[in-house]
Amino acid sequence: xxxxxxxxxxxxxxxxxxxxxxxxxxxxxxxxxxxxxxxxxxxxxxxxxxxxxxxxxxxxxxxxxxxxxxxxxxxxxxxxxxxxxxxxxxxxxxxxxxxxxxxxxxxxxxxxxxxxxxxxxxxxxxxxxxxxxxxxxxxxxxxxxxxxxxxxxxxxxxxxxxxxxxxxxxxxxxxxxxxxxxxxxxxxxxxxxxxxxxxxxxxxxxxxxxxxxxxxxxxxxxxxxxxxxxxxxxxxxxxxxxxxxxxxxxxxxxxxxxxxxxxxxxxxxxxxxxxxxxxxxxxxxxxxxxxxxxxxxxxxxxxxxxxxxxxxxxxxxxxxxxxxxxxxxxxxxxxxxxxxxxxxxxxxxxxxxxxxxxxxxxxxxxxxxxxxxxxxxxxxxxxxxxxxxxxxxxxxxxxxxxxxxxxxxxxxxxxxxxxxxxxxxxxxxxxxxxxxxxxxxxxxxxxxx
Length: 449
Hints:
This protein is of the alpha/beta class. The protein has eight helices and 29 strands. Strand 25 and strand 26 form a beta hairpin. The two termini are 33 Å apart.
């Protein structure tokens, strides 16, 4: 569905109406974006390729972990009665019948008066009821307590002869029980889980080599403006460095996407149109910054009127005004034969970043198939020297520093203040019907960290 086909949002919305003069509320615009964007189709991926992706199905444990009783210590597998009452003065003396190592296929049996030298992770041998750490024994050397075992390659005789045990052990001591981690039939991971290193480790541990996920969305970020110069290049008169494409590409990656940054495109509609068409092949979502206002050189509107969709009904981008500050001019729709979603953001750095957090990040998280796509919010007490002012009828988003239920403004309200943005970890939200917020008042904050 194209956003150019305006839906009737009904009279309950504060910005009811339609047409080019309609003033959209933040919520209406957000609803339009999220109603249009759909989760990507699931694919089967190898485990490491699935990192950062979202599980489509619940994962059930096919076998218990650990799959057998095993030792949590290097020591000796024993019967409890054989070491009852053992002490340094009166040690239990047991016959060592062999080694039990991790991965050993045919464990030996421990009978009365016997012990088996056992390694961490090795299966508890039949007949044994507990493990005594090697530090509780003489290690088979007959010279008092030892601090560790000698390597088998250096002392193969250590698996034979006798061992003195200086302390008793209760049943199941130092034994990790079968299924003590997870049991067969348990749910290992729920659908909607983002796969990080621990989750991938669990999948490998239960024998899953591939998994069905929604892939990380591919996001192309493109900034516009003839005044923009790449970092490390020399600035000429009237030029500035392109920061938006770097900030938004990093933000897209932080949101979970595979993001591609395109160098700044000059204010030429044909060049911009051609660049966007070239980038569609690797995009699940397109993001542009700049050129969406009402100036004579704001060419994004002109360029996006028809982008590769002349023969495709329902395409196109709708440019609109939002009742918010910063970020009043916005564009949203679809481009190209596959109707790739595109969000056109303002060019001022703070405006573009705030717009990304409010609209693009939720779109990325929706493409991923996540159930909760928005940043968390909290209520905080305003710490400020004077009242905050806000234009009537606009939802204002101010940069803030939040900690322990208190938020303080960072910088002013100007949409060009990049330095203030770099020191903020929250957005202070001032509602449309509020023109002043006094120090100490409770405010809503969007947590960015």
